[in-house]
Specification:
Elements: E1 8-19, E2 33-43, E3 48-55, H1 60-75, H2 83-93, H3 102-122, H4 126-130, E4 137-144, H5 149-162, E5 167-171, H6 178-192, E6 197-201, H7 208-218, E7 225-227, H8 235-244, E8 248-250, H9 257-260, H10 262-267, E9 272-273, H11 281-294, E10 298-299, H12 305-312, E11 321-323, E12 341-342, H13 356-362
Helix pairs in contact: 1-2, 1-3, 2-3, 5-6, 6-7, 7-8
Amino acid sequence: MGAVSMIIEDIRTYQIKAPWTEAPKFSLNPPEFRDILVLELETDNGIVGMGYLILLSGGGSTIQACIKELMIPELLGKNATNIEAIWQHLWKRNYWIGRMGITVLAQSAVDIALWDALGKQVNMPLHRIWGHCNDTIPAYGSGCWRGYGPEGMVERALRYVKEGFKAIKMQSGVLYDGNQDVENLSKMRDALGENIDIMTDVNMAWSADEAIKIGKKLQEFNLYWLEEPVNCEDFKGYLRIAEALDTRVVGGETHFTRFDMRPFFESARIPILQPDVMRGGFTELRKIATVADTWGIKIAPHLFPELMVQLMASIPNAHIIEYVNWMDDAWVNPILPTQGQYSAPERPGHGLEFKKEFISDYILK
């Protein structure tokens, strides 16, 4: 039997600027629009795989240009089933100017589309192709953003609890000093009681010393995890904090590929990693999950729950999925949690299809 013919004949990209259903208030000035970059990859047998990125601070035109100049010429004529070979080729081809940043973001959109195309070709969801492991995966309600203020964060958390979530995530740092952060968590714990897990995301706002000082006060309120307390490059800071606190210290969303995460694996003191599919694609996330499992590290990926459910349903060290409602209105058949639990869909590929009107209404001409 010969190789499956899925020769890449065309690659199309377009940008979408869509209003938020609820703008994420990371700060007092939340982003006005959802910046979404969509990539469609079509093969000679009519299969179309789709990948997309959500960009929170611009860069769509730059990534689009990168795909046009550095990706498309390398992809046309290739067999779309050669996913690992394509990943390695693009990685090595752009290593001199890439390794992180724009080239990996662009490569990730390609990788997501390739896996989607393969799933459609064999009429299987990705979690079945990779080897199904988990029928259900717990989710936490994210988006209790600091920009809502202390009362607003609690109000949003209570909405999640009412919907059946057993865990929520709030934010610390940036707009608040340490004393206010402690007070905010105290209010959240009083409102939710002891049976709901509370995480807090610092978004790299503190030094290691600040994280230890404030973290010791936060852990008195049974904090489930302290997320990204220091700059992503400060691996020694991460380890100092992890050694000083009883609370779990987690991170990884800002790191590109398993190579950038190597210090986390070598120390194995960060119990949960949060890789982002935009920073390596499905191919890389599966490798990160495997290496993490070797060292007893769990995976709780950053955002993109509608994509991440495929990964999490197929790995043994799946911990929890981050739910946000950023894209619920975009899909023909949205993949949503029920009572705080996700189940991966049985549709081919990643199972996502944009509504035609979502594209036509918000495409950037």
